[in-house]
Amino acid sequence: MKKISIVAILLGMVMMVVAGCSGSNNKDGNTVVIGIDDKFAPMGFRDDNNELVGFDIDYAKATIEKMGKEVSFQPIDWSSKESELNSGRIDLIWNGYTITDERKGKVLFSKPYLENSQVAVVLATSEYSVLNDLADKNLGLQSLSSAADALNANPVKDIIKGVTEYSDNVMALSDLKSGRTDAVIIDEVVANYYMALEEGSFKLLNESLAPEQYGIGVKQGNEELLNDLQAALDELNIDGTASEISVKWFGEDKVLK
Length: 257
What we know:
Largest sheet: 9 strands, mixed
Low-confidence stretches: 1-25
Mean pLDDT: 90
CATH architecture of the largest domain: 3-Layer(aba) Sandwich
């Protein structure tokens, strides 16, 4: 009986430890864990020193500081972003996260903070200029991104040859450069960044697929966090911090007020 009791006690202690470790990343209630795609330049990506940088990174740091909390960035599989949020492993989705009707059914959104659009990027040497030039061509895009939604909602979807999905835009653009695809559907802010970075490599078609707006995703039911977040964002607009961060990354104030 004594041996059984000792085993039971030990098992109980193990279960208590496991239970304590299986909760939220935010153990002390003072850290906001943000899920990001760390290959989404210029919104959030790694620099030459492997440090996380970008507009959304700076914007998030300033916002969470304004809330009086600490921030932790968690790179995630972007195709599983809502699952990561709903599981409690992250508190926010914040990295060029497009507001769509479908996503509104899965998360709470902040007010939109940046305008964007989905565009088609082609090689600078190509003769394509409008969307109809992509007839019978192979396109690439990031898997489970708003680029896929924009393409599916556009008539050009009915005339293209096929679509290849990638885990991130870097891989999609790499295949475009190597000739494995003919165009990439991508966020305009991302396209502009890479066109500046690799001058003379890419160009945009004269037509965009769809306008959109970026927002911050919060778990459904967590209105308190959403309200605190939005209040901090509003303060950054008033004191000029949001504008300063925008000018740093885009050369102009693009933040929605």
